[in-house]
Amino acid sequence: MTEQTFLNQITRQLEASVEAGSLQAWSLTTTVSRSLQRLYASPDGESLSCHQSRRVDSESFKLSVYTPSKEEGMVGTAMLDLAPYHPIDQQLKEAITLAGGSQNKAWKLAKAPIVEPPSVETCDPAVRDNPEGVALQIEDQFRTAFATTAGCRINSAELFVNYITTSVINSEGLSYETELSELYLETAMEKAGQDNDKEVHEHATSVTVDDLNVAGFIADCALQVSVLGESEEPETTDNASILIDKEALSQMLDAVLEQLNCVNEYLKLPFMNTGDRLGGGYGDTLSLQLDPTITCMVLSSAYAADGLPAKGGMLIENNEVTNRIIGNRFGQYLGLEANGISGNLIVEPGTLSRDSLEGMNYVEVIKFSSLLIDSRKLTWSSEIKLGRHMAADGTVTLVKGGVVSGNLKENFIDCKFSSTLGNVNVPKSSYAPPLGYRGPDAMLITRGVSIAGQTKGEN
Amino acid sequence: MSTTPYPLNEELTAFYPLLSKLVSALESGAEDRLYAFASLEDLDQFQSHVSQTEASGLNSDRGLVLRILAGHRNFEYATNNFDEASLIKEAAALKSEALAFLDSQANPPVYTPINWADEPLETFAEPIREQILAAGSGGLPKPDSPVHFGTAYDPSFTESTSKSETMQRARILKEALEKEGGEQLASTGCMLRRKAKSRLFVDRTRMMSQTLFSSLYYLYVVTPSGKTVRDIVGGMAGAEAGASIDEALIKRLVETAVKVENAERIQPGRYRIITGPDVTGVIAHEAFGHTQEGDTCRLGRSCAPGLRKKGVLVGNKQASIINNAGVFQMGKTQWGVNGTHFFDDEGFIARPQVILDEGILSSPMNDLISSLVGDINGPSARQSNGKRESWKRPLMPRQTNTYFTAGDKTLDELAELCGEGYIAEHAHGGMEDPKGMGLTAGTEYLEEVKDGKRTGTLFLGPQGGHVELSDPVPRLLNSIIAKSTIEADGTPDQGEPHNKWGGCGKYHKEGVEAGCGGPWILWEGITCG
Question: What is residue B493's DSSP assignment?
Fold first, then answer.
């Protein structure tokens, strides 16, 4: 059965169920994806040798059903993956039965907008039309870029070239499609010609081949390799200053974003309301907005996740919460007007430059081992996989190990953001939703950070 | 308790002829040059989550992987389009691609799979051996005799297969938490998940299938300041896995949350620590778990092959770690955990492997290609560690259940030996650095031990978050003072040590199920922050 035939059949049956009164509403998301996956070894440390080459074709159909409830103001809800290889009527019957056992406060699904929101480009046509060619191009760029490095050895690499189309339809007439290309390039490198106890393991992600910037990625990895050497554990302190990069900063702000979503208020989880403050003090001010319109960013879309037309909007201005994300369902629950605010995190640059760091005592965290951020407590912690202790007198010591932890409510006080901007464009994975960020390349945190490591004088 | 192996449903059984045809299309006439298999993966999962909202969902996913191993390269095509003509065409294209690759190689190696007769049956766990022999009517199965392995479950627990009872149970447990917590809590929730994950595997030597039936009960409470305390109960079983959830557990969860809400913060530093099976397991998984994964070793990304070659001791006599997919009983618990399987995603039967024996490293945990290519110590034995997140993702050597071996102390004796320190019982993530031998294992909070006794006083991290335990691996593994028996209460050991429900991402992606555990362990000192 073709995808369209299956969709036609299921849509007919869903409409018939609404007509018959067994369903109140429904929505259906169809995802079709193609993936080209290559894993590489490098026996000689200089070339890429593919040891696993895969092609993957998949399609999936996710159905949400809403059934009338015996209780006024309530609705039955259930979600299921529809399988084309099983009879549709049986699956629909099962969905309706399940919904009967899951009762929620009723809400109205998003309708088709009167004016179609402007579409946003989120696909590199080359990935759509010639994924094999893109893979070869990236392999070639990798080899060319690596040839310009000195003193590096390749241990491994991975390349994923993905193309995904998604269509959403619902019983209220909403209907839209999105197209997304995703590129993932990873490599592990170390110093050539010696036994090592450190490697650089980095990955780059993007929507377009150009944005992957293979040459820049390899150059960055090579630069990291060049600084590898003898290291020591960081010193224990309950009052550390640290410099973090845009990846860590974007993840921290993404945790903050959860508290700016009205969902948390309804779920009785910690949330920030208009007028609340985050950070402040003598540092750079924090201004945070979402933007769904930037071309070829992973969180750009004409529609927000709940089917409302996506809109950009300021959420934090000069450290004060000025607005919240109010989605369709939870906005109705809380009696708030939905605003469709969604998209990529946009943060204003600050005043921090490399020069302004001179004479300061801080640890630059080049790589966290595993940055775990608690979006409810707004705390975080990680081992330092690789970092640099920069002493006030200019002495630089490579550090590794120990535990660095922080408290975001404190961290944004007296902090400094870099004056230079960068992008983070991380596609969805089985671990985390997508993350799109445009903002400062780095952040200097001077409050609310502890480090557990060595204590001078102790073994 | 009367259990029965979870059966393979008829609809899946009907795929065998197609898989056989596909294997033939992949390798027919070229068996002396390449090796192929076809594998079908099927997920049938029901989940009910009750908190401030209610959500029920049915996840179904079925996909097929066609694999050719040519020389030292794997070629795969994966899809969930089961049209036979289309699949045969794809199989032919994959074969052409593989043969073209072989033509470009000088003397490429050829892998020949082993037959049932070559399998070391005596080393397999009882449930595996029994089901092989049952399929062969007491003897070894023929290549075209399907062998099915199913995890045992107790059908008398009707909740196991009833979605409405499962939903009702989730609601009851959530309401019990809410009632117990009252105004002290901001929110409570309960998520129940029932999963049947099946796999069919066909190559030129065998036809086999497995269904792993598991149950997960996830209960949590959230305090007004957002501190979350949870309990995860579950295993490779039906609803009997959740039978231990009682009023005492609910009460304990709420009491802990209230304590955590008001907990003080530790000063960053080094402390004497007792880890419970959950945190012990994360350390096992991260210490010489990831470091002993075959691809990490062969790609030059692990320190382990070099240390093994030099014969370096990386831990003391107490430092013994096992990886074993064949865990079907843990202490007094009559089932395994979610890292358990009968065969891996490349069709290799589960068997235990000592990956660290009293501080001495063994050969790595291998998938097929890693066993053939080897590391600086040369090729080594294939293990049952070839796993993938799903049919959509690449296969790599991954851990199954990784655990420290048990010792001889009770928990009370460990506390007495500890004197002053902390207990880390509930895990909160972890990460490894196989090249640099760094390790970090998180715990939700620490419980104080004073004068050799647990005080019940809880502490959070220096900034009010969870606590990370981190040290260089050799330092850590040399600091084990003593280990408990499996139950830590003086009763004789039976089965394997307790493994906890867990998951693993290799570095930062490719999520797979992985149990980990061991006894309670007293460590001389661990950096806590």
Answer: P
Alpha helices, H only, A262-327: 262-266
End-to-end CA distance of chain A: 69
Q: Which residue in chain B has the smallest CA separation from A156?
A: B299
Of A54, A83, A94, which has the smallest distance from its Cβ to B62's Cβ?
A: A83
pLDDT at A457 over 60: no
pLDDT the model gives residue B507: 81
Compute CA distances A296 → A29, B83, B262, B487, whole Å. Answer: 22, 35, 46, 55
* Residue keyed to tokens 């600091």: B479
Average pLDDT over every residue of B368-391: 98
The 10 Å Cβ neighbour count of residue B103 is 10
- Amino acid identity of B38? A
Alpha helix stretches (DSSP H) within B76-230: 84-103, 126-135, 163-181
Residue B24 φ/ψ, nearest 5 degrees: -65, -45
Give which of A54, A97, A334, A368 to mutate to test B binding, by max B Cβ within 10 Å: A54
Nearest to B435 among A198, A402, A452 (CB): A198
CA atoms within 13 A on the CB side of A152: 29
Distance CA B192, CA B169 (A): 8
Contact A313, A290 (CB under 8 A): yes
Q: Which residues of A touch B168 (CB under 8 A)?
A: 101
Alpha carbon distance A3, A452 (integer Å): 55
Tokens of B471: 């040290």
| pLDDT at residue A459, as a whole number | 43
Q: What is the mean pLDDT of chain B?
A: 97
How many residues in chain A? 459
Between chains, do A369 and B228 touch, taking CB under 8 Å as contact?
Answer: no
Task: Give pTM, 2 decimals.
Answer: 0.96
Backbone angles phi, psi at B217, to 5 degrees: -120, 115
The helix or strand, by DSSP H or E, that contains position B231, with its residue range, turns out to be strand B228-235
- Within 8 A of A103 by CB-CB distance, chain B residues are 54
For A125, counting Cβ atoms within 10 Å of its Cβ (0-12 exposed, 13-18 middle, 19+ buried), the class is: exposed
Contact (Cβ atoms closer than 8 angstroms) between residue A365 and residue A404: yes
- Chosen from B194, B463, B504, B509 to mutate, greatest number of chain A CBs within 10 A: B463
Q: Give every CB contact of residue A6 below 8 A, 6+ residues apart in sequence.
A: A61, A82, A84, A88
Return phi, psi of residue B392, to 5°. -80, -10
Of B77, B81, B529, Cβ closest to residue A381 = B529
b (16+ CB within 10 A) / e for B168-185 = bbbbebbebbbebbeeeb
Taking each helix axis from N to C end, the angle separating A3-20 and A88-100, rounded to the nearest 10 degrees, works out to 50
Q: Is B525's Cβ below 8 Å from some Cβ in A?
A: no
Chain A residues in contact with B306 by the CB 8 A cut-off are 195
Asked if residues B345 and B338 have their Cβ atoms less than 8 Å apart, the reply is: no
Q: How far apart are CA B24 and CA A46, in angstroms?
A: 38
- Whether residue A98 and residue B58 make contact (CB cut-off 8 A), yes or no, is yes
C-alpha distances (whole Å) from A103 to each of A71, A106, B153 are 9, 9, 30
Q: What number of helices (H) and strands (E) belong to chain B?
A: 12, 29
User: Chain A to chain B, count of Cβ pairs less than 8 Å apart?
Assistant: 269
Q: How far, in Å, CA of A115 to CA of B80, rounded?
A: 37
Our CA angle for B133, B137, B142, nearest 5°, is 75
pLDDT tens for B2-43 read 999 999 999 999 999 999 999 999 999 999 999 999 999 999
HSE-up of A309 (CA within 13 Å, CB side)?
A: 8
Which pLDDT does position B277 carry in this prediction? 98
What single-letter DSSP state applies at residue A231? -
